[in-house]
Design a protein that fits this description.
The complex is a heterodimer. Chain A has no helices and eleven strands. By secondary structure, chain A is mainly β. In chain A, the strands form two sheets. In chain A, strands 2, 4, 5, 6, 9, 10 and 11 form a seven-stranded mixed sheet that branches. In chain A, strands 1-3-8-7 form a four-stranded antiparallel sheet, with no helix packed on it. The relative contact order of chain A is 0.32. Chain B has no helices and eleven strands. Chain B is about 0% helix and about 60% strand. Chain B is mainly beta. Chain B starts with a strand and ends with a strand. Classes of the chains: A mainly beta, B mainly beta. The interface between A and B is medium-sized, with 28 and 27 residues.
Chain lengths: ~110, ~110
Amino acid sequence: EAQVTQNPRYLITVTGKKLTVTCSQNMNHEYMSWYRQDPGLGLRQIYYSMNVEVTDKGDVPEGYKVSRKEKRNFPLILESPSPNQTSLYFCASSLGGAGTGELFFGEGSRLTVL
Amino acid sequence: KQEVTQIPAALSVPEGENLVLNCSFTDSAIYNLQWFRQDPGKGLTSLLLIQSSQREQTSGRLNASLDKSSGRSTLYIAASQPGDSATYLCAVRNRNFGNEKLTFGTGTRLTIIP
């Protein structure tokens, strides 16, 4: 089954404790991206990757890191989480970049930082 | 900077009625526009993708139109059913200054009354 898989789905952590949210897709998609969803603010793009070893910042990249060492995986890294990073996070992928991309989303990862 | 607006924020209609959801955007230089639905606590499910060269797309009871020059898209749902209750989001894809950008509206929460 074609899908985007995120882990963990739910996580409670404390300020400053490094964490990684994994994202994997099995559709051989080139484009992958991360979003956060907050009440009243909607979905905002954190980082995106047009292909392996190519990443770029979205609208709200501060406090986040990403890597794209292989096509199927695009982990989101919070080096020193803070309470303002409490949010619902989504990973998405599409076959290509602009003009080719129906986006497919993961189920989301709800992160709480105390 | 692209801004995407969805009005109204919430809509309730009786089952069986046809309805229209609206999406407007400020920068008409888009690659495509995509409509999603989101059920509570779930990820986003793609409904329709309209490329910038297209005027409309249809899937079952759903029809989405795009008027790039006026910065508007509509999602038409025919013969609404209780299972259509969800939040509907539109997203536009731009390329600005070399950055791939995807901007979401804040959504319309639709409730179909049995």
